[in-house]
Amino acid sequence: MAKKDHVSETPATQLLKAYKVAFTEHPYEYLEHGGAQHSAAVLGFDPFTVVKTLIMQDQDAKPLVVLMHGNRKVSTKNLARQIGAKSVEPCAPEVANRHSGYLVGGTSPFGTRKTMPVYIESTILALPRICINGGRRGYLVGIEPHVCVQLLGAKPVQCALEE
């Protein structure tokens, strides 16, 4: 019998287990700057169903989390307008690492170091299942998208742009 790929626990998987959330594990060979498009290609998933976790900040440098389709980018103008901010921009990688407690490329919205508001592209919630980072580079977990709303209080927004 082949041994199933098992990845050691992360703060994200600990949180999912604590809330009895069913999830599937999808380890893959991490590629620097490969992003969600790379993980989707390697694992055979549609990049639209692979959700990236982006740590951003508003004009006051207050951090926030944006969950976006792997093959879309965030319209920071639309996002800022919808959340009542003057502006939104991506955090520098070292700042994002500090806020989340994860390394960029392995950022999960679950089990972050700081509690931050979470925004989810509304079309993600229409998908039956998504793959999202499990808290380590080269590691995705498959979950139902509504888990993001239930556990993180993710608020739906419309800010996707075609890549």
User: Strand pairing plus helix content: what structural class?
Assistant: alpha/beta
Let me know the number of strands: 10
Low-confidence stretches: none
Rounded mean pLDDT is: 95
Instruction: Give helix and strand order, one letter per element, not per position.
Output: HEHEEEHEHEEEHEE
Approximate helicity band: 10-25%
Short description:
The protein is α/β, with parallel strands linked by helices. 25% of the residues lie in helices and 29% in strands.
Describe the secondary-structure layout.
Elements: H1 11-18, E1 24-27, H2 35-43, E2 50-58, E3 63-69, E4 72-74, H3 76-83, E5 88-90, H4 93-100, E6 118-121, E7 130-136, E8 139-143, H5 146-152, E9 155-157, E10 160-162
Parallel strand pairs: 2-7, 3-6, 6-9
Antiparallel strand pairs: 1-8, 2-3, 2-5, 4-10, 7-8
Describe this structure in words.
The chain contains five helices and ten strands; from the N terminus they run αβαβββαβαβββαββ. The mean pLDDT is 95. The chain has helices spanning 11-18, 35-43, 76-83, 93-100, 146-152, and strands at residues 24-27, 50-58, 63-69, 72-74, 88-90, 118-121, 130-136, 139-143, 155-157, 160-162. Strands 1, 2, 3, 5, 6, 7, 8 and 9 form an eight-stranded mixed β-sheet that branches. The chain has a two-stranded antiparallel sheet with strand order 4-10. With 163 residues, it is an alpha/beta fold. A hairpin with a 2-residue loop joins β7 and β8.
What keywords describe this structure?
10 strands; globular; single chain; 29% strand; two-stranded antiparallel ribbon; alpha/beta; 5 helices; 8-stranded mixed beta sheet; 163 residues
